[in-house]
Amino acid sequence: MSRSGADLALLLLAGFRTLADQAGAELAERGYEDVRPVHDFALRSILSGADSASALGRAMSVTKQAAAKTIAVLEARGYVAREPDPADRRRIGLRVTERGLTLLQEGEAVFAELREQWETQAGRAAVAALEDTLRQFVGDDAIRVDQPGWNARDPDA
């Protein structure tokens, strides 16, 4: 069994991918078959203040055009709405709709259930130790769910 750094990176990626794929499948079962991981990042960015395509693009490390495409998809699916800015009616801002907020809550519940499955399979202490070890390497502030970077290149993937 190889113990190379590349193997570790692939194993970490596979763990992420496994959780993301399982969460996507479970969300589809719950009626959200039209969402992708990048949509979660976009919704969280909008909630954090990215209220335009330019701001969303900056927050997600994508072009303004890619952000606009993501916004159009989320708007068409009822997860975000465009509204005039109360301070400047010429400006149109973004807000996450009730459907979008419900999706985020469902997603959080799904990930909690998946964590419980991992704890059942490997043991609560093993999962906690894994989490603690990863936190030692990446730090407490390394995870920003409103900023996926390289993971947000294709909003329709």
Helical region count? 6
pLDDT < 50 stretches = 149-157
Q: Percent range for helical residues?
A: 55-70%
Shape: elongated
Strand content bin: 5-15%
Mean model confidence by pLDDT: 88
Q: Please summarize the sheet with the most strands.
A: 2 strands, antiparallel
Question: What is the strand and helix layout of this fold?
Answer:
Layout: H1 5-29, H2 37-47, H3 53-60, H4 64-76, E1 80-84, E2 92-96, H5 98-122, H6 124-138
Antiparallel strand pairs: 1-2
Helix pairs in contact: 1-5, 3-4, 5-6
Short description:
It is built from 6 helices and 2 strands, in the order H-H-H-H-E-E-H-H.
Could you explain how this protein is built, in words?
About 60% of the residues lie in helices and about 5% in strands. It is mainly alpha-helical and about 160 residues long. It has a two-stranded antiparallel ribbon. Helix 3 (about 55-60) packs across helix 4 and helix 5 (about 100-120) packs across helix 6 (about 125-140). Residues about 150-155 have low confidence and may be disordered.
Keywords:
62% helix; mainly alpha; 6 helices; 157 residues
